[in-house]
Amino acid sequence: MNVEQQALRAREASRPLAGATRSAKDAALHAMADALAKAEAAVLDANALDVRRAESVGTSAALIDRLRLTADRVSGMVNGLRSLAALPDPVGDVVRGWTNANGVQVRQVRVPFGVVGIIYEARPNVTADAAGICLKSGNAVLLRGSSSAAESNAAIVDALRTGLGATDLPADAVQLVVGPREVTNDLMAARGLVDVLIPRGGAGLIDAVVRGSQVPVIETGVGNCHLFVDATADPAMALEILLNAKTQRPSVCNAVETLLVHAEIAETFLPHALQVLQAAGVTVHGDEQTARYGEVLRAEEADYAEEYLSLDLAVAVVDSFDRAVAHIRTYSTGHSETIVTESQTSAQRFVAEIDAAAVLVNASSRFVDGGEFGFGAEIGISTQKLHARGPMGLPEMTSTKYVLTGAGQTRG
Amino acid sequence: MNVEQQALRAREASRPLAGATRSAKDAALHAMADALAKAEAAVLDANALDVRRAESVGTSAALIDRLRLTADRVSGMVNGLRSLAALPDPVGDVVRGWTNANGVQVRQVRVPFGVVGIIYEARPNVTADAAGICLKSGNAVLLRGSSSAAESNAAIVDALRTGLGATDLPADAVQLVVGPREVTNDLMAARGLVDVLIPRGGAGLIDAVVRGSQVPVIETGVGNCHLFVDATADPAMALEILLNAKTQRPSVCNAVETLLVHAEIAETFLPHALQVLQAAGVTVHGDEQTARYGEVLRAEEADYAEEYLSLDLAVAVVDSFDRAVAHIRTYSTGHSETIVTESQTSAQRFVAEIDAAAVLVNASSRFVDGGEFGFGAEIGISTQKLHARGPMGLPEMTSTKYVLTGAGQTRG
Fold it and tell me: Per the database record, which ranges form the Aldehyde dehydrogenase domain (chains A, B) (predicted)?
């Protein structure tokens, strides 16, 4: 079956799904969870094949770790599906409504997109997560996983479809798209059949989809995030936030990648901070001024542009607030940008002048996260300005429809 | 100056504009209005050149009418700018907000997109309207008008920039993009410099932009709208709504283009309806069953796919509610779809099963309009599912930003 045929089946499946009650969808999520739990052995066997192949072609240990499933990780997927069932259903929510002077009632109501395509990389747990989020939000999904996880994804989708098959909802609401590279292009060309594409993965994948797709795209994830220690910052607070934002989980998009320090506080802040960072295992790539305050690798221009996703940190001393803003404007990917300051003026200016999905004052950028926001589920963190910006929960996986109800009114 | 240079200037201008107060923006709108009023003679002279050239190349009377400016139309633009000043400012609106358990305050705040590109056809009044809407919503704008209106657009933009130049806001917030066809391609390739492109015009223009752009697009306007007269419809109400939706202003996107009549009511409804339509100057393109009830042109398949934008109407008799839904699903452009019915079940099913920006029960589709919705200004009617769907007012011309404020909180 080619992508067009799969998309047409997804479109068909999307119709009953769009009209399904919350109870029906929640029952389906539990059925999917039950079937996945039952298929644990098959999923782990399939995953072992993927892991073996990855090892045989010399895949890095980090990538193999993302690829590998364990009984715990399968349980994680199963529980993820069940917790989606516990979340409110965004479909049918009335966003706003009013009655026109002539008596026509207008309501803006949340409706599913229809068919969502997810293009993602190695982690096979995305398969179950994305399928569950799409189902709960009333969308049929086409899952285009990485070839490196082909066996795992096939086993997971097989289980999910078996679960769905035992309910009133169509199994074609969840489909895996397999085949060579060109298949991804077909998916990106399926305008009119697929309503939105969401790439999840590294910068390369996201950029390729954003540039190549004729289907509307929601861009997620790349985070070259900055933390600016303003002249008036509380040094202890700044260090605590920095350590948290850099080291608590360095591989995620809301981790800090560059530290900017106001020259007026550099001497107070940096000597101790550099020691503490080193003790925490952080490799500092600093500019000339930073090097005055401790032993650091010398930063190249490229360091400031890089999303390390590791225990590396680029550091620069800036002569003024304006220089900090200019630096961030040059290198920011528009994800999460932080200022630590005791100055109300600086805080306000930073919030106003920095253009990003999230701007933080005196708090760790690790809070920019669907879980921390209380969304319960997250399909990703949007770094684009259209439709959704920042952590995307279930309501962000919907569109709206205006419903106008009259008693024969016409326009004068 | 090439498109990239203009976009960079727009980006620079967008910064003070994003932070401008409502008072500053309203003063600028009045200054633009004053300058445009003062430039009336220059604008009309420039327009006369465009009209003469259009006539010399045999442009249709309808297009020349859209192109032609009069003192009244210039006043319309001037008043449009002043009425924008009277509208609330969406920028800074807190969409939602909460406080996390750890005390971190989260607010989702409306912010401008930044730089908006508008690609549009002959009507030069779009130049002032779009510039005003973008300015009020805090966005810098790149206006790419039609070459047929080049002189008119240049004169209008010249006046608007003169007006802006007398205020604290940067004149580069409003720029006209001129040059050969390739310039439009440059605009569509300006990802990262231009935040969103909005095409305004015919189906061909919109499709070209949607398919060719790497900048995110908001698709507006094509409306192949249907009216379904259900078996239980009140025939008098159905006819009144049909006449209004077809004839009140046939050239607009929310006018009805196809009438579907349930077979059970065809004999009651169609004979009289066809007479009344004929008397109203409507040319009916009917299927075989329609032809039983009056004299009609025979409809081809293509008639059902066409957005006439004229006093033409395609008509088909359908055997069931499901056939009506299937027909609409095949030919709808997802703009505005209407049912006339006395059946609560049919009304509910129609609203649930038809996927469009607006679905209407017993009311004219002419109500699907920013003015009728009370939005005060409208940049267009979105027929896409991302970001905005239906009439777009000022809030739809903004993005959002999460602002997190803490007192040193870190993630555990």
Answer: 3-309
B147 CB within 8 Å of a chain A CB: no
DSSP-derived pairing of the beta strands B283-286 and B312-318: parallel
Q: Which residues contact residue B170 at a Cβ distance below 8 angstroms, ignoring those fewer than 6 apart?
A: B12, B13, B16, B17, B164
Test mutation, B355, B373, B398, chain A, max A CBs within 10 A: B355
- Chain B residues in contact with A391 (beta carbon < 8 A): 402
The verdict on B234 touching A (C-beta cutoff 8 Å) is yes
> Of B63, B318, B21, B11, which Cα lies nearest the Cα of B192?
B11
Cα dist from A56 to A52, A121, A150, whole Å: 6, 19, 15
Q: For residues A21 and A25, give the distance between their C-alpha atoms in angstroms, rounded to a whole number.
A: 6
Exposed / middle / buried, residue B41 (Cβ in 10 Å: 0-12, 13-18, 19+): exposed
A254 touches chain B (CB under 8 A): no
Residues of B with Cβ-Cβ distance to A386 under 8 angstroms: 196, 216, 218, 386-387, 399
B386 close to A (CB below 8 A): yes
Distance, CA of B397 to CA of B394 (rounded, Å): 5
On chain A, the residues whose CB falls within 8 A of the CB of B345 are none
Angstroms from A137 CA to nearest CA on chain B: 14
Nearby residues of B72 by Cβ (< 8 Å), 6 or more positions away: none
Neighbour tally for B302: CB within 10 Å: 9
CB distance A358–B401 less than 8 Å?
A: yes
Residues 167-196 of B with CB under 8 A from A: 191, 195-196
Per-domain boundaries in chain A: 3-220+379-405, 225-367
Q: How far apart are alpha carbons B305 and B324 in whole angstroms?
A: 15
Asked if residue B397 lies in contact with residue B115, where contact means CB atoms within 8 angstroms, the answer is: no
Contacts of residue A389 in chain B, CB cutoff 8 Å? 399-402
Q: Do A216 and B385 make contact, defined as CB atoms within 8 angstroms?
A: yes
Which residues of chain A neighbour B391 with C-beta distances below 8 Å?
402
Residues on chain B touching A19 (C-beta within 8 angstroms) = 352-353
Interhelix angle B150-165/B40-56, rounded to 10 degrees, is 160
Kindly determine whether residue B410 and residue A244, on different chains, have CB atoms separated by under 8 Å: yes
Detail the DSSP E strand segments found in A122-179.
140-144, 174-176
Looking at residue B300, the DSSP 8-state letter turns out to be P
Interface of B with A in 348-367 (CB under 8 A): 351-353, 355-364, 366-367
- Contacting residues of A for B360, CB less than 8 Å apart: 403-406
Pick the CATH number of B225-367 from 3.30.479.30, 3.40.50.300, 3.40.309.10, 3.40.50.2300: 3.40.309.10
CATH 3.40.605.10 fits B3-220+379-405, yes or no: yes
Identify residue B97 by its one-letter amino acid code: G
ipTM surpasses 0.90 = yes
pLDDT digits (tens), chain B, 412 positions? 899 999 999 999 999 999 999 999 999 999 999 999 999 999 999 999 999 999 999 999 888 988 999 999 999 999 999 999 999 999 999 999 999 999 999 999 999 999 999 999 878 999 999 999 999 999 999 999 999 999 999 999 999 999 999 999 999 999 999 999 899 999 999 999 999 999 998 888 988 998 889 999 998 878 999 999 999 999 999 999 999 999 999 988 999 999 999 999 999 999 999 999 999 999 999 999 999 999 999 999 999 999 999 999 999 999 999 999 999 999 999 999 999 999 999 999 999 999 999 999 999 999 999 999 999 888 899 999 999 999 999 999 999 999 999 999 999 9
User: Going edge to edge, which strands form the sheet with A196-200?
Assistant: A174-176, A140-144, A115-120, A196-200
